[in-house]
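User: Predict structure, ligand zinc ion.
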Amino acid sequence: MQPGLYYQGYGGIDGVLAGSKHVFLLVHPDLTTEKVLHDCGNVMEDEEVRLGRDLPFRVDNLDSVVLSHGHFDHIGDVGKLPLNGYRGPFFGHTATKAIVEQQLTYQAQQQWIAKAAERIGEGDAFRKPRANAYPGREKPAFLQKHARQIMENFQGMRYETPFIPNGEQRGFIATLYDAGHIIGSSQVLYEVMVGDSKIKVLTCVDLGRSDCEVPLLRKPHTEFGAIDYCLIEATYGGKQHADRHKSREDLEELVFRGCRDGKRILIGAFSIMRTHAILSDLFWSYKRGKLPRDLVIYLDSPGAAKLNPVIMKHLECLSDSAQRDFRNRQENPFKFPNLRIVRDRKDSVALDKLRGPYVIISASGMWSMGRIVRHLANHVSDSNSLLVITGYQKPGCTGAQLEDLRGEIEIEGKTYTRRAEVVRIRSYGAHADGNDCVNHVVNHVRPRKGVFVVHGDTEPSEWMQRTLASKLDVPVEIVRKGRTYRLG
Ligand SMILES: [Zn+2]
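Assistant: Predicted complex:
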């Protein structure tokens, strides 16, 4: 290979959203190399890939791993790195480090659950979620010791503090800038010395919203100086979000109506930040005296509850108005009279016996795993239940069946008649929409040499490419699997 900087995408590309993995390879003039992996996400859609232990690139010459944020499609395959022999450092925001630690602990526990289930045979699917996740397959042997090894080598960083990821080798300098997507999410600027010249590459994947009137997080950082190349997400290419303020009002109205009618209100929400945005909105209603005094809201999502202290520790990542809410130690979105945090599984089970009105917020956001599956199975056939969808539903998942308002819903292989009312609140999205991304690249990043479109289905990616190409005077490429791009 000639001296220079090279880029390859291995996931979150080519019409696939998930499994983000981006490799930057620097070949020095003396032909020594430096290799940085940006993100190591899991491909949820492909079970073979998700459960396998292989990674699609060489790990033996990898020097460092930089993680943009704590969503599973960006960190879910981190555990496979030690399995493939990687012993080097990890970098990410301190909040990302905390989320990775929680995720790895959970994944390692799941391995034990899978193994235990294998020993004792089939059982109650609710008691052993994902227990039969590995039927007849080679088990990935990811265990607590690997999680420990990763965390010992993980350096938590702050925003806007440059660092050298590759130790003695000094070809890369990296800096994290707030992406405004989830707590700790980062746009990463790589400044790479190729011989005597510097190439600056900025990753904008995933980018938060800047159109919110009432954001929970800060808006994405926009001052970068001169940039040569950028990676931009196409998640919502060609689509426009509804006003975030509207979802706050919609939720308040829905809770009010549900309470008046004595309903059991079940809100499906992703455990990382979506749940917290909803809590923040319910707290807004509480402050305005709009929540009935005797209404109990149960947060029944262990993953979301574990993130509460991480958010409280990183208040600087929140918007000014959210900081004001959270800095109050007496009453804040995680602590107000209507809210109960459910920790024990037996308390979660007991909720299903209660009569409405009450609210349960639970994960997963797609209604296909976690405690919400049991709540749904118990109440989907009850016309006294109100089911609230707050996020994207992958075609085929349980939430998508609800969203389609089907008469019959399949939950863990069993068919239920749906009598519960289903309502969708739009615009809790944490990604910038198409126009927001275009605006970010054209008006703030202003790349001088090229743009790479990643993290989008085929149509949104093509929209993003077309739109950016019409506004910029540089090549705009949709990143393709297996292709190597030379930068510079
Ligand atoms: Zn994300």
